[in-house]
Amino acid sequence: MGEIVVITGLAQGMGREVAKLLAKSGDSVAGFDMDAESLRSLQKELDGIGGEHYLTPLDITDRKGILKFRDTVLNKYGKVDTVLSNVGIGFFGPFEEISLDAALKCFEINVIGASAIFQAFLPTMRKQRKGKLIAMSSLVGQIPFPFESIYTGSKFAIEGLVQSLQFEVKPFGIQVAMIEPAQVSTTFAAKIHKLPPDNSPYRDRAKRFIDRDNELIKTAPTPEYAAGVMFKVLKKKKLKLRYQIDFMSTFFIFINKILPKWLRDSILVNYMDIKP
Contact 102/153 with Cβ under 8 angstroms? Predict the structure, then answer.
């Protein structure tokens, strides 16, 4: 019998592709997303592959809805083996000019959203004395990027949350991990890239950052490739704490650990073409 895997934010992109890989391997996928139309098309694809799957439209900020989702999943399958917190939004802009109300929404979705889905299934995993909780973090969860201060902050929070959580749940046989992609060739970045107004003192550098980011996205891993890496992580019997999607992420994290700060900063500023 396959495993029962819960995935949030699986209607499109990496989440959608990893759901299909899981279905092909004989696992059952239970998940939700706000994009009802894409969910319906995914359900048809999963039905064509075979197996039992449960998908429903749901907002990650709906606490009561998440608990109802959990109850439905447990009533249907009797257990859950892995929870992948994949839902998240990006956030771009000079910190001085951003809306803090919008920033709060980013933290609510990226950090509290992951917390809510993990917390919902933790009691069952604790009683089972096994389970895996996996969060989608980011390269910026270890290496802060300019003009992404809020998004970076949310991913630093995820990193701290998961690192702390591991000590609490390990005695119950529960493993935790983070997957840290840099860029994947999806529309994720394009949705958030918005130039500051003409009179902004940050406009020129922000434009160069966006232009550079768009160039990098052209050669970034595809959602299918990223999903393949994620699938392998989900299927591992023993998890390590962090996984990267591509070599570039692994390389940048490596040099971030060994180089002095002034040199790391210089490399980042030049790499993203934002020298003053």
Answer: no
Residue 70 in tokens: 């959990």
Taking phi over 0 as left and psi of -120 to 50 as alpha, with beta for the rest, 176 belongs to beta
Q: Residue 14 is encoded by which pair of tokens?
A: 């990496």
Number of CB atoms found within 10 A of residue 63's CB? 13
Beta pairing partners, 261: none
Integer CA distances (angstroms), 151 to 36, 91, 170, in order: 25, 5, 28
Those residues of the chain that have pLDDT short of 70 are 1, 184-191
Per-residue confidence (pLDDT) for residue 220, from 0 to 100: 84
Which residue segments constitute the domains of the chain, with CATH numbers given? Answer: 4-194+221-248 (3.40.50.720)
Cα–Cα dist 192/170, whole Å: 37
User: CA 108, CA 104: separation in Å to the nearest integer?
Assistant: 6
Q: Please count the other Cβ atoms lying within 10 Å of the Cβ belonging to residue 159.
A: 20
60 touches 87 (CB < 8 A): yes
Instruction: Name the E strands within 124-248.
Output: 131-136, 174-180, 242-244
